[in-house]
Protein 1
Amino acid sequence: MKFIHLFGLITVLSMSTRFVRGDEGMWLFNDLPVDMLRQKYDFEPSAEWAEHLMKSSVRFNVGGSASFISSSGLVLTNHHVGSDTLFKLSTPERNIMEVGFLAKTTAEELKAPDLELNQLVNIQDVTETVKQAVTSEMTTEQAVAARRAVIAKIEKEALDASGLKSTVTTLYGGGRYHLYQYKKYTDVRLVWAPETAIAFFGGDADNFEYPRYCLDATIFRVYENDKPAKIEHFLKWSADGPVENDVVFVSGNPGRTSRILTMDALKFQRDLNLPYIMSSLRRQEILLQQYGLRSKENARRARDELFGVQNSRKARLGMLAGLQDPQVLADKAAAEKALLEAVNADPKLKPLASAWQTIAETTQKRAELLGKGVAVNSHLFGIALQLVQMAEEDQKPSGERLPEFSEAGRESLLQQLYSEAPIYTDLDQVLLADSIAKTLEQRGFDHPLCQEILAGKSPSDRAAELIGGTKLLSVENRKAVAAGGLQAIVESTDPLIQLAKIINPEVRRIRVITDQLDEQDKQAYAKIAEAKFATEGTATYPDATFTLRLAFGPVMGYEQDGQQIPAWTNMGGAYDHEKTHEGQTDYVLPASWKKSADGLNKETPFNFVCTADIIGGNSGSPVVNRKGELVGLIFDGNIQSLSGNFVYTDKQARSVSVHSSAIREALKVVYGAESIVKELGK
Amino acid sequence: MKFIHLFGLITVLSMSTRFVRGDEGMWLFNDLPVDMLRQKYDFEPSAEWAEHLMKSSVRFNVGGSASFISSSGLVLTNHHVGSDTLFKLSTPERNIMEVGFLAKTTAEELKAPDLELNQLVNIQDVTETVKQAVTSEMTTEQAVAARRAVIAKIEKEALDASGLKSTVTTLYGGGRYHLYQYKKYTDVRLVWAPETAIAFFGGDADNFEYPRYCLDATIFRVYENDKPAKIEHFLKWSADGPVENDVVFVSGNPGRTSRILTMDALKFQRDLNLPYIMSSLRRQEILLQQYGLRSKENARRARDELFGVQNSRKARLGMLAGLQDPQVLADKAAAEKALLEAVNADPKLKPLASAWQTIAETTQKRAELLGKGVAVNSHLFGIALQLVQMAEEDQKPSGERLPEFSEAGRESLLQQLYSEAPIYTDLDQVLLADSIAKTLEQRGFDHPLCQEILAGKSPSDRAAELIGGTKLLSVENRKAVAAGGLQAIVESTDPLIQLAKIINPEVRRIRVITDQLDEQDKQAYAKIAEAKFATEGTATYPDATFTLRLAFGPVMGYEQDGQQIPAWTNMGGAYDHEKTHEGQTDYVLPASWKKSADGLNKETPFNFVCTADIIGGNSGSPVVNRKGELVGLIFDGNIQSLSGNFVYTDKQARSVSVHSSAIREALKVVYGAESIVKELGK
């Protein structure tokens, strides 16, 4: 459930409700539900407990979560969160994705080409400053600029004062603004990874299902000044793991939920946006499958991207199924009706009612834009477009730039842009050709922009010419273009940069429109949040924003099709699961597990479920007990949890974790990684 | 390149052009290009030669071609044409698709549950009769009824007079009407099928590619009165097969081409219809893949349908790529411009120019209808809807019914409706749930029809209820419903019949609209055909209509990416091909081939290409030499041939055949089918 693939135009939104259901909630670390925890679980998290957990938590900027697990910088995350790096470190001769990896000494640890890890160290409420910068007299265009400027200023000042990565996060869809400050680790090295065959045992078929038997874990180490970093806050390994029915806590970065959406916005998701995204994902999936069928090496090259697409497709299917369930929508509609009635009944709140109309209008405009963008895309084209836009944006002061080019984010931007990770030009050409064809279909072949893009050739001939002619595969050349500034872009004869210059004005035109729609939504959802605070109270949590949140709930099974699904599986079950699916792809245990079958304690708990409220982005989150000890590692949610994007339920929805004991047992018995086991808890 | 999956709203259209290119042409057997053959190949087909070939040719009503190859009723076709039957005859215990089949004696031959084979025995021009029935004073609605009535009358009278299956075929999009009469074989038994592993060696990756190494062949036998049928016209097996660069002839049933389409209609295909169909196919493909991943038995159940979808998807991709090539479109546009100028310059022809405007208008209406149908579909739902419509239609005289329910076609209809072929309810439920979800997406969840379909449940819950509750799995129950007539339908409490009754009015509403658009197109394309006959002459051929045609061209290789692709492969090449793709799915030769590796003459030619103009539906067509002897078996076209749907080229486009010698060698050495070999040519 990694979230990397972000399609569509949904902005980050928020939710509030007085009566959260069951263990609903992705809580802010600076606003934990202390009363609820005391009442429900007789547990009161101390400030130290919370700070320790917060600072032991790690964010993977590629779209996942993690935690520190030793004083010498060991970081535990999912195999599928690390797989982007495992893939980049792999070659046909050393396919880490397939055979796994173990560094026997720190000298053998492999440096990731472009990983950035973030440790949250400080949160500050800057709502007043941001809100004061945007006045009700401003046009939407002015409001976009003013908000962008004040946020860039806050971030720049915070960065200059602290040296920390500083990001203003919009919460409750615009109701609150918090400044998040992170310590950044960019020297990250691979220590251990199991084979994909056991990390993703059961493959796409078992993804988002339960019971499961996956060792979806990988260990990295962060370095500073070429030495293992000294880490003050890290999680101690629990001796026994979690106890059934007791509460556990998940500290991670849920990517995005949309629980505050109005009915109009939900219907847009259900009838238009999600079907459109699904269709795009299926297209990408078949394309990558077809490329992969041509040879084993092709399959290897496409694998990581294919997994990401399949994962997204299955996740969206779950979300859409939730919205297509009449009961889910009926509950939502009733809640909205009640809120609107309360707002209209109160003269002080009544002016807020216009927010719903605003959302109806922005939603209509989003519907009109759907599928009308420029679909052209590939890794190398993305680099070309970024170089073109960066040269243009750098002509402006930081506060007036598109946020991704502002000074506060520059370092992270360049790390991606200048990554030495391999780009396979044959695959990139296939992606480019298909995305050109898609643009023709979306805009109509005869559209002047399409004719400019094609330059008289078929999509595949044009892609061959572009990828064959570009010099952007070389990082040195990218740096040279960037160093030349706007002049170098204007004069460039690189065919991909020339294509980017053709497409850039249209990309910017659409960006202006969507930025303004986002601004209108922010103002509207801020009003809706205000209405909710006024009628339902403030003891609540905002929608997910890929920032650190605390979720919790007991370890417990559930009923499905009349059967009781137990909370646990054990390691022996993996062997039975293989037997049941004999001969099927993705159900073959790796050689290491077959060799260790006798030595392994088969009773060791393997995977387990709990009711904690998570979503894509939470992958790799540590699961801890009351004492703050590591008892598990989130890696998935079951299929019933996917509608959690819109509404939480704990009837069947469950988070799925690898049990901490299984990781230790596998490290010891299967992988002979005694040195890691020794280091845990140190 | 089987064509079974017909999506969208394209009608059968026709083409004519004075200067056909290279070996362009799918020629009518009653209007063969005798002059061209004499001039180009110094070959003059006698009337006997043509009649013998025509009567030796066989049509598979599931969507393919074939030929008689013995006096005792042996029929040769492709494995992938027969696979529908192979699949229906398979069970988890006897998976014919996987392990193949050989009947050692006629007693062991397996009866197909619902195959219908047609042998064309007579063609008659009925253009005048049909045209006189439709006058220019009629409204479109009246024209639809009048044309339907006169065609039903011709067919009924022909059936009554001859006992032959009689079908009026619309040629040149409405320019000509011919009555085709067929001898029908419905007792068809399986004699021999190889393993899918060698029939479809290289799988989806190699499909529509060349060079190839596929034994895509299967042999059936037709029976009459429970005995092998006596066949007068059958093809003798050539001793040596085809000679390079010499002309060969293909006699088969190309399904549909669209070469006469106006630019407006082509742009609709390019920008809207083909992208829409591709998107539907990808959805179906992923759905079937996902179902198949769950278990080996699921994979078996979904396999045949999955192959059909993948095959269609790849074929459409090739067609779309052709239309997205600016050069292809430029040629088409220039030809249309020249024709329109000639029409407008000639006062006698000028009234025909309105046809282009008509097509522009019908195309616009088709665009508005696209994706606005009712997508609900599954095998069992299809049966329910057919029962409902049949009961209604049977209230009317045959000539007023929807054509598929007229008396002339009744026997073929009932053979399908009462087929004992297995329907897997778990798969059917998955198909039904997804098609309900698709309907919600296409019409909007809140549409009253969608609400009626859902009945308050989610798509998957509703599908479970419908499939769980229906009694239509039993053929006896279907017959009982049909016997009860309209009354039985009205009173039926079967949930699928109830759903069909809900959906039927909307299906009919759309049918009326598309029938009228088709009628307008027929009248318009008749005018365009007239304009072409007047300006370019009549020595031409109509677009494909899934009726028997003759195509021809020399056996010859082609150049691709600077490389010369030879016309032939040989059987030894299959073993090399396996080695090159070691470990990849679909590149593993079956055990029988491994065992026979030494005994096989590896120099035996395996597959070959020629320039004959074919398309989906030609699969299984016999390839014969000047003497009318069987030298090959069409099973595919290369990727470059797919744009042949819109325009023929012989630069790289090639038809791909199994060499007759390879079939004989495999029967002898690999399958030990001496009795079949002996029977060939008898």
Protein 2
Amino acid sequence: MIRAKVVGAGGYGGVGITELLLGHPEAEPTCLVDVNDVGRRMSDLYPHLAGFCDTEISAPDSSVAQESYDVVFFATPDGVGMKHARGELEKGARVIDYSGDFRFNTVEAYRDYATRLGREAEHGAPDLLGDTVYGLAELHRDRLGESTRLVGNPGCFAVSCILGLAPAVAGGLVDPESIICDCKTGVSGAGKKAAAAFHYPARYDNMNAYRLAGHQHVCEIEHELGRLAGGEVRVTFTAQVVPACRGIMSCLYATLASGMDADGVLAAYRDFHAENPFVRVFDRNATVGSIHVRGTNYCNLVVDVDARTRRLRVVSYIDNLVKGQAGNALQNMNLLFGLPETAGLDRPSQYP
Amino acid sequence: MIRAKVVGAGGYGGVGITELLLGHPEAEPTCLVDVNDVGRRMSDLYPHLAGFCDTEISAPDSSVAQESYDVVFFATPDGVGMKHARGELEKGARVIDYSGDFRFNTVEAYRDYATRLGREAEHGAPDLLGDTVYGLAELHRDRLGESTRLVGNPGCFAVSCILGLAPAVAGGLVDPESIICDCKTGVSGAGKKAAAAFHYPARYDNMNAYRLAGHQHVCEIEHELGRLAGGEVRVTFTAQVVPACRGIMSCLYATLASGMDADGVLAAYRDFHAENPFVRVFDRNATVGSIHVRGTNYCNLVVDVDARTRRLRVVSYIDNLVKGQAGNALQNMNLLFGLPETAGLDRPSQYP
Amino acid sequence: MIRAKVVGAGGYGGVGITELLLGHPEAEPTCLVDVNDVGRRMSDLYPHLAGFCDTEISAPDSSVAQESYDVVFFATPDGVGMKHARGELEKGARVIDYSGDFRFNTVEAYRDYATRLGREAEHGAPDLLGDTVYGLAELHRDRLGESTRLVGNPGCFAVSCILGLAPAVAGGLVDPESIICDCKTGVSGAGKKAAAAFHYPARYDNMNAYRLAGHQHVCEIEHELGRLAGGEVRVTFTAQVVPACRGIMSCLYATLASGMDADGVLAAYRDFHAENPFVRVFDRNATVGSIHVRGTNYCNLVVDVDARTRRLRVVSYIDNLVKGQAGNALQNMNLLFGLPETAGLDRPSQYP
Amino acid sequence: MIRAKVVGAGGYGGVGITELLLGHPEAEPTCLVDVNDVGRRMSDLYPHLAGFCDTEISAPDSSVAQESYDVVFFATPDGVGMKHARGELEKGARVIDYSGDFRFNTVEAYRDYATRLGREAEHGAPDLLGDTVYGLAELHRDRLGESTRLVGNPGCFAVSCILGLAPAVAGGLVDPESIICDCKTGVSGAGKKAAAAFHYPARYDNMNAYRLAGHQHVCEIEHELGRLAGGEVRVTFTAQVVPACRGIMSCLYATLASGMDADGVLAAYRDFHAENPFVRVFDRNATVGSIHVRGTNYCNLVVDVDARTRRLRVVSYIDNLVKGQAGNALQNMNLLFGLPETAGLDRPSQYP
């Protein structure tokens, strides 16, 4: 069994990976760490886990947390992983970090990200950046193998946008200067901490755009698309929240660069994602919604060409907490340990 | 008192105008007509109106429905108004129609609309088209006066998009070829009739884009913006539904045509809408959501420039059933009868 | 105009009475007081009030708050009203308090309440208790007149239970020892303050009972029903929260004391509430839900007899924020100033 | 592998058992039958099953549906199972029926049920009634073994009430004449078919009681509790619907028959359910909600004594579609095939 440690176990990212590890045939959530709720059982925080995971939450500096594990998930905000990854790597663990700490390979790229976010611009472990891999298997599967020790799990919006735009950008189908990402998320994307904006009465029949001045996920979208385009890419990105719990729906727009029609574009998308077990490509007539990926690691892409305006339009659906977070992290773990990519993730969800 | 007849009283558009008329100082819902529920009281269909409106629903051919009224609201689907408007006009009524029947002034423009919608292309009352006015006061207030007899009330998405784009297009601030309208609506936009897609369990944690092949509201958006631009305009338009009851949030994008910065654009918007009592303009830092216009006739516009990509971005919020439908219709009625534009509409809603 | 001061203006109880006063023909929210958000405009806290109420929030000790007003609403938690009511009364104001501070006429009754709640048992202004009136017009209308200076506005659950049980208890229709109140509320009943239990993702598909050990509203239910029964009454009361914003649905059970059938009981209820403009009585076949009182001051009662078990069953629906709080407070204000009881409250709400 | 046929595969009960069978280590949904959607793939109806279950829906009289299977689930309304069970039994299948057809062992008990429901009172296969078992393992585990061929799966409300009351009734802790069941369900309990009452805008902020004149689940509650009490039991039962998708919360009340205190009652409950893997017993201080059983086969019971009124109060939580339907059916299947009772059901759900 792969012995996993989850840091930040008490948050939605932590409980998500815990649930998935409990259902994984080759791994288990051996150690749960958090700075809050130390000494309480995971099933006290999350009663749905009673009988499945009654493990106590350990403090980061507790002896049980200091032991060595096969894999460590940092389900933590920016800044935590960069402080503690080295220690885990030295103890032989593989590290999968949920934050922006290890999504970039250079101090310059990190500085750009941190600056936009208003964080300290200097990375806390710059020597590790050369070895980290951006953990999106659909683009970097060849670098996510048994020799990989450190992975930066992507942001939830970024997953939906990159998977939905990569085929077009990589294939030169669109003008990379024309990209607009209009992204809506369910409220769970804001995490577990209660706040006025996510108080049920303030949210139940309400939708709004937020952080118009700049969302941190833009950096990695531009970085990955720029890599595929072979040059700088700048996108317009609008984050919005709607009164759902789970789900991201991203509408992605770009001007077509060639005379390709809808069928051609659809074929290019199907070709690009042919080997990606968690990406499904649909045509414009499909009746697909976020509920059809809810609870799963799938990304559903509806690919369309607006012939009147010669624009590509892709609607990308994921579950923000699964393919947008814990599920994608588990997919990375599978690759790092030479397991089938879909292990522990090949189950249908429940409907409705 | 202005005596109003409401045709299609049993639907959401009908109950909406009925509620507003009940609170209007100068008008009343005298006659309620529908093809369904004839003989039942309005308060049987809508128990929240018990004691306020216990009027019986009349059949269209009943004697009470054949009387003359001061104003007739056709809260009906396409095709009804064009059959019956002439009769009402001849009886001296003013007519405000909710459908696409009277939103266009020429048979050609109507044909384009009807064709896209898959309807019979020939208009049923072509001689009336010359006299109808597109009922958006913010653009056509000068034509919505006491001499106006026939009004085509706009589509809900169209209201949100046109109010949000008109200042930019009229002022030449943007390239009219670059416009993208990404529009989300609450479920009440689909009307009162139960359907699988709007069944609570299928909808409660679900969002999806729909009718990608073309939404009928695009015609009027392009028509009105084209008029302001002085030339043909084609927009990319994506309709989406989210698990809310009321509200539209439209994200509107266009490439800036000049070097104007965010402050300049904001000033242009404030100037354009200065005399429009139901439009509020906010800057990018405002915390505004659809719940803040819920139940009211307001359109809240958040105006932003994405400096990195030189794009205008406007987030337009309305209540689809008020400014997007019945409230806007009442605003039109006020203008047609020489009343203050805000009569019956100048009340705050309830929060939360 | 009646000049009103609202203390605790920033909470749901405060914004509720402010909205209602804005629509009242004879009163206005002249002064808004809170300990938080001092100096901000009410419309900054509640953007839906922009243009309707841009009044600044004043500190309790500010000069504007020290002026005299015709009526003061204490939309505040337990303990505030008892400290400050005397000062307001001495300045000539009438006082309507939302908390438990003035719901009881004796120090003994208050002590019982405070003890169950775990609060200091001694009342802070015991000499005022003799003059306060329990502000439920349906039971105490004769004491809520122009000579009344001090009113204790009832708890939201209590309103729903007392209105639904009073006819049966007063008429001796049921065994008062057999009463069970099973009460469900929407989340707005918990107030404006964000908390883990009311975070959207924790609440959206969740229902639960809470405070099984004792809810503070039980005291006033027992007190009022005991008065009607002419003896002590003890009820079993279960508070529950469901994923709605507004609304209370209370199922009320008691064993029938006589051979009266459903028709007889229904007649007794209709008779009891005949002069109460905000109470509507329905039979068991009515299709009534909380949405039909949403946004209004109505209490809808469905009255039924379970013939097989000889039990009375009443389902009582109110909007917790209107008849359960601010609307009922305004109804009290109307009575205290000799206005029609329904002034400012006689409007239908919006559906859906 | 156990080869299962699901009749009524297209409804919520059908998709529920299909999902569970897909995750079961020893069974599979081999044949899917429905009268609607014949020829479409299950994953066309339920896109979340794409890649997991692309089986075509077969007509009841198709050759594939006529083959013999190891187990047949009738996820169908009353009247279907009684027509077709015999044929399946003769082909050697075990039959688990979701409706009331096989919940009773005598024609008299069935007649009472059918009469209350307004159905034809004569059972269509009376000779089978002697052999059927009421499929609630917690009460009838000893009769749900490998020799059992026919099971009547209980009603969802009934599961929640019987599990919550059985310890008290069986132990003589309460007066069986005093039982009240106040039950709230999420909307999925109404099934997949769209209807006005479950249209999203009509339901989203609405709660209501329904079918006050009598709910069909009462029969089996009274029947099972009567068996435990050793005499006739009549309960007052109120069905309510709240704006959630999944979940039942039943508040159960009864007068205590002895001087037993809360601790004693709690101990009796823990003892009664000690061997039931899917029942968890909590004290009154537990923070438990329907979301904690969502997606699982668990029943969470909060057991309380209201000392002031000497009443037992139990709050019983289940997922209406799992322990209230498909999960309980699978639990029965496990027992009939000698498998571990929890096979295919021992997974945590997802939160939030």
